[in-house]
């Protein structure tokens, strides 16, 4: 039996790693559990081969380390590995399933992130957590005040203004003890908002150093947060065959179900990067709102893309129009990054997305 390893699957963990290697004929010629130190020692000494791991925590780091040793590293989504797990699930079965899945000729893999991409992603994740904390804190403040009969209008600005008034003026509705509690919560809210602005400033500074920022900034409904998330996802646009492939990767295309030759289209698949997809959809809602305000003043002042957006809104409503515009923006972003071109509103206004609406 040929003992040369051609393809190896590694089931990752914090300290114990299960390896499963096969030769050119697909026969298993290596199966062993290694510690972290032994793993790197082993990988650095074997001849060059393809190493595949599941896309999970730490996977991008290990992939870069394997590439540094001269191997071809690939990441595979866990949902594509699961069908190949035989009988009982354990580390050895998972490693073998990774090899089986990776050996399929039409298997799709996850792009490997570089260090700078993970830096940007880390900022996004911390900012996202701070926003969740801010929302939870504002809801808590509103709920506590409502118990004292104080109702504050929607919006952060209205909340901050009213809290400042409550803490400075005399109010018989609330006691001094409760006012001290609100003061602590108000200070905490100010600190969280300050942290969010600091992280957004970091994103702005990092993104402006990237040459693609200005190109993406010209897309309707795409701002700083969406642009930096797109830069992370499209660091290597060649990974996607075309714009529709990228939109499908984000889950912005319809899913379908069919049997007996009858296919049924349903809502969008919602696969892939949930965070980026939500940013594009929310940005599209903002763009639709701006177009509607402009159309209410003078419909003739709309350009070709704005007319497409407004017409789609009138025919399909806000939700479907937002998804369709998010789909279009994803395709435009891929085209700008892949072909290193500038945004052209005339080309962007072509009705390419009937299926998404």
Describe this structure in words.
Helices cover 56% and strands 12% of the residues. The protein contains 14 helices and 7 strands. A 5-stranded mixed β-sheet has the order 3-2-1-4-5, with helices on both faces. It has a two-stranded antiparallel ribbon with strand order 6-7. Strand 2 (16-22) and strand 3 form a beta hairpin. Helix 5 (115-146) packs antiparallel against helix 9 and helix 11 (274-297) packs across helix 12 (304-316). The chain is globular and about 85 Å long. The relative contact order is 0.07. The model is unreliable at 352-357 (pLDDT under 50).
Q: Please describe the biggest sheet, giving its number of strands, its sense, and whether it closes into a barrel.
A: 5 strands, mixed
- Could you report the average pLDDT, rounded to the nearest whole number? 90
Query: For the largest beta sheet, what order do the strands appear in spatially?
Result: 3-2-1-4-5
Any idea what the shape is?
globular
Would you report the number of β strands?
Answer: 7
Amino-to-carboxy terminus distance: 56 Å
Count of DSSP-assigned helices: 14
Structural class: alpha/beta
Beta content: 5-15%
- Give the fraction of residues assigned to helices: 55-70%
Oligomer: single chain
Radius of gyration: 26 Å
Order of helices and strands: EEEHEHEHHHHHHHHEEHHHH
Low-confidence stretches: 352-357
């Amino acid at each position: 039996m040929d003992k040369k390893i051609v393809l190896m699957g590694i089931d990752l963990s914090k300290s114990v790693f299960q390896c499963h290697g096969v030769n050119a004929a697909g026969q298993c010629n290596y199966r062993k559990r290694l510690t972290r130190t032994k793993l790197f020692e082993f990988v650095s000494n074997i001849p060059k081969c393809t190493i595949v791991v599941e896309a999970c925590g730490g996977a991008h780091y290990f992939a870069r380390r394997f590439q540094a040793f001269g191997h071809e590293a690939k990441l595979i989504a866990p949902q594509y590995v699961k069908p190949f797990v035989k009988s009982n699930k354990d580390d050895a079965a998972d490693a073998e399933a990774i090899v089986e899945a990776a050996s399929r000729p039409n298997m799709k893999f996850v792009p490997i992130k570089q260090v700078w991409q993970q830096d940007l992603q880390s900022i996004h994740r911390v900012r996202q957590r701070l926003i969740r904390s801010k929302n939870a804190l504002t809801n808590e403040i509103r709920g506590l005040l409502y118990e004292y009969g104080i109702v504050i209008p929607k919006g952060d600005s209205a909340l901050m203004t009213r809290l400042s008034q409550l803490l400075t003026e005399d109010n018989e509705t609330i006691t001094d003890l409760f006012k001290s509690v609100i003061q602590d919560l108000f200070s905490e809210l100010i600190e969280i908002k300050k942290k969010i602005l600091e992280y957004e400033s970091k994103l702005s500074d990092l993104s402006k150093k990237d040459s693609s920022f200005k190109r993406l900034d010209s897309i309707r409904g795409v701002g700083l947060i969406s642009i930096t998330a797109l830069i992370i996802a499209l660091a290597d646009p060649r990974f996607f065959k075309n714009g529709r492939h990228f939109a499908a990767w984000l889950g912005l295309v319809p899913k379908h179900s069919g049997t007996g030759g009858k296919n049924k289209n349903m809502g969008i698949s919602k696969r892939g990067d949930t965070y980026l997809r939500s940013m594009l959809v929310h940005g599209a809602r903002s763009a639709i709102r701006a177009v509607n305000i402009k159309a209410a003043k003078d419909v003739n002042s709309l350009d070709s893309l704005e007319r497409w957006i407004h017409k789609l809104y009138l025919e399909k409503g806000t939700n479907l129009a937002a998804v369709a515009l998010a789909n279009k923006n994803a395709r435009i972003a891929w085209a700008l990054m892949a072909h290193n071109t500038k945004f052209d509103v005339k080309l962007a206004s072509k009705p390419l997305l009937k299926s998404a609406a």
